[in-house]
Amino acid sequence: MSSSLALLAEIRQSSERRPFEVLKLAEPLLNKGTISQAGDDVWLVYEQVFLAAIDEGQIELAKAILITLQKRFSGSQRVKRLYGLVNEAAGHPGESKKLYDEIIEKDETNVLASKRIVAMLKAQGRYAQAIKELVSYLDVYANDFEGWLELAHLYLGQHMYAQAAFCIEEVILLQPANHYYHLCYAEINYTMGRLDIALKEYLRVVELSTDNVRGFYGVKLTADRILDLVKNRPKKDQLHFSLDNVPQQGTLERLSQLATERLVNAYSEANAACRTVNEQWLKE
């Protein structure tokens, strides 16, 4: 196997696209016909180059590769999906949607076709339809945390915070140790005024990621805001949570103080590091 084919295989195994590099490596293989040296992997290489061509806007190259794939895999649903990608790139979303619908009609478990429909609707700014499609998809594939994340982002774009919070709850059930998702959940709840949940989630963030600056900011801001509410005691109908569900005033004050100390230390260390770099640079 040539070095170009070996590098293309490495890129595939890493799940990276790197389209410019892929096309540069593939060009001599296509021109000289040496792509066949890939043996059983030749069709994977063709598909890899096809996707790179789509990413780089080289539609004619993508179409030429697609003809080769169609000759070898006539009637393949996978190849039909690639035709959908070409139509998307060429600005024919209606044709793409028709192909994806045909694929799903024959194979309801075709996840990639379902996701392409959602992506296409999102790209067209048809967010309500994209949400509807993704909800239907997740009714079947409830364990797809990436799908829940995408749905959360779509809801956030429409300022539907309660629905977005529900999606992130599903993500956390699937990925409980990832501090980023707890942070997203905390920030959504803070925005909604559900400060009791927000505080718990910010504390969970700094538990999972002990140097997380955003987490400590969240702890401080939420604790200070709750303290203000505890002191002023607004009417219950003005709150989105019960003050009975939050720590005592002394605990809140301590949390705010500790978060402040951690933030000061974090920025002091960062400033010290910056000073060291500047001093070294000035000496050069």
Automatic annotation (TrEMBL):
Compartment(s): Endoplasmic reticulum membrane
Pfam families for this protein: TPR_EMC2 (PF22890)
SMART domains reported for this sequence: TPR
Family: Belongs to the EMC2 family.
Bilayer-crossing regions: none
Database matches in InterPro entries: EMC2-like, TPR-like_helical_dom_sf, TPR_EMC2, TPR_rpt
Organism: Coemansia asiatica
Domain of life: Eukaryota
Alphabetically ordered keywords of this record: Endoplasmic reticulum, Membrane, Repeat, TPR repeat
Oligomeric form and interacting partners: Component of the ER membrane protein complex (EMC).
Function as written in the Swiss-Prot or TrEMBL entry: Part of the endoplasmic reticulum membrane protein complex (EMC) that enables the energy-independent insertion into endoplasmic reticulum membranes of newly synthesized membrane proteins.
Record's protein name: ER membrane protein complex subunit 2
Gene Ontology cellular component annotations, sorted alphabetically: EMC complex
All copies of domain EMC2 TPR-like, residue ranges: 80-189
Membrane topology: Peripheral membrane protein
